[in-house]
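Predict the holo structure. Ligand: magnesium ion.
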Amino acid sequence: SAPLVAIIGRPNVGKSTLFNRLVGRREAIVEDKPGVTRDRLYGVGSWEGRHFLLVDTGGVDPSLDTGLPGDIRSQAEVAIEEADLILFVLDALEGATTVDFEIAAHLRRSGKPVLVAANKADSDRRELAAAALHELGLGEVHPISAAHGRNVGDFCDALLERL
Ligand code: GDP
Ligand code: MG
Protein backbone atom coordinates (compact mmCIF):
# COMPACT_ATOMS: atom_id res chain seq x y z
CA SER A 1 0.00 0.00 0.00
CA ALA A 2 1.02 3.65 -0.43
CA PRO A 3 3.36 5.06 2.23
CA LEU A 4 1.83 7.52 4.69
CA VAL A 5 3.33 11.01 4.84
CA ALA A 6 2.18 13.30 7.68
CA ILE A 7 2.43 17.10 7.48
CA ILE A 8 3.24 18.50 10.93
CA GLY A 9 3.77 22.07 12.12
CA ARG A 10 2.29 24.87 14.14
CA PRO A 11 -0.68 26.87 12.79
CA ASN A 12 -0.30 29.22 9.87
CA VAL A 13 3.03 27.91 8.58
CA GLY A 14 1.32 26.68 5.39
CA LYS A 15 0.58 23.00 6.06
CA SER A 16 -2.75 23.06 4.22
CA THR A 17 -1.31 25.08 1.34
CA LEU A 18 1.44 22.47 0.96
CA PHE A 19 -1.10 19.65 1.29
CA ASN A 20 -3.24 21.15 -1.47
CA ARG A 21 -0.24 21.65 -3.73
CA LEU A 22 1.03 18.09 -3.24
CA VAL A 23 -2.39 16.47 -3.59
CA GLY A 24 -3.00 18.55 -6.69
CA ARG A 25 -6.60 17.50 -7.04
CA ARG A 26 -9.57 18.04 -4.80
CA GLU A 27 -10.17 14.43 -3.85
CA ALA A 28 -9.14 14.69 -0.25
CA ILE A 29 -10.92 12.13 1.88
CA VAL A 30 -12.05 13.06 5.36
CA GLU A 31 -12.34 10.07 7.63
CA ASP A 32 -15.81 10.00 9.07
CA LYS A 33 -15.20 8.64 12.54
CA PRO A 34 -16.96 11.30 14.60
CA GLY A 35 -14.79 13.14 17.07
CA VAL A 36 -11.74 11.03 16.43
CA THR A 37 -10.29 11.91 13.08
CA ARG A 38 -12.09 15.12 12.17
CA ASP A 39 -8.78 16.83 12.74
CA ARG A 40 -7.01 14.85 10.03
CA LEU A 41 -7.44 15.32 6.31
CA TYR A 42 -6.16 12.71 3.86
CA GLY A 43 -5.29 12.93 0.19
CA VAL A 44 -3.24 11.11 -2.41
CA GLY A 45 -0.05 12.77 -3.57
CA SER A 46 2.02 11.64 -6.52
CA TRP A 47 5.38 12.56 -7.97
CA GLU A 48 7.37 10.90 -10.75
CA GLY A 49 4.77 8.15 -10.92
CA ARG A 50 5.00 7.30 -7.22
CA HIS A 51 2.04 7.66 -4.93
CA PHE A 52 1.83 8.41 -1.23
CA LEU A 53 -0.99 9.06 1.20
CA LEU A 54 -0.73 12.53 2.71
CA VAL A 55 -2.27 13.58 6.00
CA ASP A 56 -2.72 17.25 6.93
CA THR A 57 -2.77 17.18 10.72
CA GLY A 58 -4.10 20.74 10.86
CA GLY A 59 -7.21 19.20 9.42
CA VAL A 60 -10.47 20.62 8.26
CA ASP A 61 -11.30 22.72 11.30
CA PRO A 62 -8.72 25.48 11.86
CA SER A 63 -10.05 26.03 15.39
CA LEU A 64 -8.64 22.62 16.32
CA ASP A 65 -5.22 23.62 15.01
CA THR A 66 -3.94 25.54 18.00
CA GLY A 67 -0.43 24.16 17.61
CA LEU A 68 0.19 23.96 21.33
CA PRO A 69 2.48 21.11 22.31
CA GLY A 70 -0.42 19.40 24.12
CA ASP A 71 -2.45 19.51 20.95
CA ILE A 72 0.48 18.25 18.95
CA ARG A 73 0.49 15.25 21.24
CA SER A 74 -3.24 14.60 21.24
CA GLN A 75 -4.12 15.48 17.65
CA ALA A 76 -1.02 14.70 15.64
CA GLU A 77 0.51 11.89 17.69
CA VAL A 78 -1.55 9.21 15.97
CA ALA A 79 -0.56 10.60 12.59
CA ILE A 80 3.10 10.68 13.65
CA GLU A 81 2.91 7.08 14.88
CA GLU A 82 1.23 5.87 11.69
CA ALA A 83 3.45 7.86 9.35
CA ASP A 84 6.32 6.46 7.32
CA LEU A 85 7.68 9.98 6.86
CA ILE A 86 7.03 13.33 8.57
CA LEU A 87 7.04 16.61 6.67
CA PHE A 88 7.84 19.20 9.34
CA VAL A 89 6.80 22.63 8.05
CA LEU A 90 8.37 25.84 9.34
CA ASP A 91 7.85 29.50 8.48
CA ALA A 92 10.95 30.96 6.85
CA LEU A 93 9.70 34.48 7.64
CA GLU A 94 9.17 33.96 11.35
CA GLY A 95 12.11 31.62 11.93
CA ALA A 96 12.14 28.94 14.65
CA THR A 97 9.83 29.59 17.59
CA THR A 98 9.72 27.92 21.00
CA VAL A 99 6.87 25.74 19.76
CA ASP A 100 8.95 24.72 16.73
CA PHE A 101 11.76 23.59 19.05
CA GLU A 102 9.22 21.60 21.12
CA ILE A 103 7.78 19.94 18.04
CA ALA A 104 11.33 19.19 16.82
CA ALA A 105 12.16 17.50 20.13
CA HIS A 106 8.94 15.47 19.92
CA LEU A 107 9.71 14.39 16.35
CA ARG A 108 13.26 13.38 17.31
CA ARG A 109 11.86 11.21 20.12
CA SER A 110 9.42 9.59 17.67
CA GLY A 111 12.38 8.15 15.77
CA LYS A 112 10.54 8.71 12.48
CA PRO A 113 12.28 10.03 9.39
CA VAL A 114 11.68 13.78 9.16
CA LEU A 115 11.95 16.05 6.14
CA VAL A 116 12.08 19.75 7.05
CA ALA A 117 10.51 22.43 4.86
CA ALA A 118 11.01 26.16 5.45
CA ASN A 119 7.85 27.47 3.80
CA LYS A 120 7.12 31.01 2.56
CA ALA A 121 10.62 31.15 1.04
CA ASP A 122 9.12 33.11 -1.85
CA SER A 123 12.31 34.93 -2.84
CA ASP A 124 16.11 34.53 -2.85
CA ARG A 125 16.33 36.70 0.25
CA ARG A 126 13.82 34.58 2.16
CA GLU A 127 15.55 31.44 0.96
CA LEU A 128 18.79 32.65 2.58
CA ALA A 129 16.93 33.43 5.82
CA ALA A 130 15.55 29.87 5.83
CA ALA A 131 19.09 28.50 6.25
CA ALA A 132 19.02 29.70 9.88
CA LEU A 133 16.43 26.99 10.59
CA HIS A 134 19.23 24.40 10.64
CA GLU A 135 19.43 25.33 14.32
CA LEU A 136 16.50 22.96 14.94
CA GLY A 137 18.90 20.07 14.47
CA LEU A 138 16.73 17.98 12.17
CA GLY A 139 19.07 17.97 9.21
CA GLU A 140 18.78 19.66 5.87
CA VAL A 141 16.19 22.43 5.61
CA HIS A 142 14.41 22.68 2.27
CA PRO A 143 13.27 26.22 1.47
CA ILE A 144 9.98 26.10 -0.42
CA SER A 145 7.06 28.28 -1.33
CA ALA A 146 3.94 26.16 -1.14
CA ALA A 147 1.86 29.11 -2.32
CA HIS A 148 3.94 29.80 -5.45
CA GLY A 149 5.44 26.37 -6.10
CA ARG A 150 9.03 27.55 -5.75
CA ASN A 151 11.43 24.61 -5.08
CA VAL A 152 8.50 22.25 -4.49
CA GLY A 153 9.75 19.92 -7.25
CA ASP A 154 13.16 19.57 -5.56
CA PHE A 155 11.36 19.03 -2.26
CA CYS A 156 9.29 16.22 -3.81
CA ASP A 157 12.50 14.64 -5.14
CA ALA A 158 13.86 14.66 -1.57
CA LEU A 159 10.55 13.25 -0.32
CA LEU A 160 10.73 10.28 -2.70
CA GLU A 161 14.34 9.62 -1.66
CA ARG A 162 13.16 9.24 1.93
CA LEU A 163 10.25 6.88 1.20
P1 GDP B 1 -1.68 26.00 8.14
O1 GDP B 1 -2.41 26.63 9.28
O2 GDP B 1 -0.33 25.52 8.58
O3 GDP B 1 -2.48 24.93 7.46
O4 GDP B 1 -1.39 27.17 7.07
P2 GDP B 1 -2.22 27.56 5.76
O5 GDP B 1 -1.90 26.64 4.64
O6 GDP B 1 -3.63 27.73 6.11
O7 GDP B 1 -1.53 28.97 5.40
C1 GDP B 1 -1.50 30.01 6.36
C2 GDP B 1 -1.26 31.33 5.65
O8 GDP B 1 0.03 31.35 5.05
C3 GDP B 1 -2.26 31.59 4.51
O9 GDP B 1 -2.57 32.96 4.51
C4 GDP B 1 -1.47 31.21 3.28
O10 GDP B 1 -1.91 31.89 2.13
C5 GDP B 1 -0.06 31.62 3.66
N1 GDP B 1 0.96 30.85 2.93
C6 GDP B 1 1.02 29.53 2.76
N2 GDP B 1 2.09 29.19 2.02
C7 GDP B 1 2.72 30.34 1.71
C8 GDP B 1 3.90 30.64 0.96
O11 GDP B 1 4.58 29.79 0.39
N3 GDP B 1 4.26 31.97 0.90
C9 GDP B 1 3.53 32.95 1.49
N4 GDP B 1 3.98 34.21 1.36
N5 GDP B 1 2.42 32.69 2.19
C10 GDP B 1 2.00 31.41 2.30
MG1 MG C 1 -4.31 24.09 7.92
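Residues 9, 11-17, 58, 65, 119-120, 122, 145-148 surround guanosine-5'-diphosphate (ligand 1) (CB under 6 Å). The chain has a mean pLDDT of 84.
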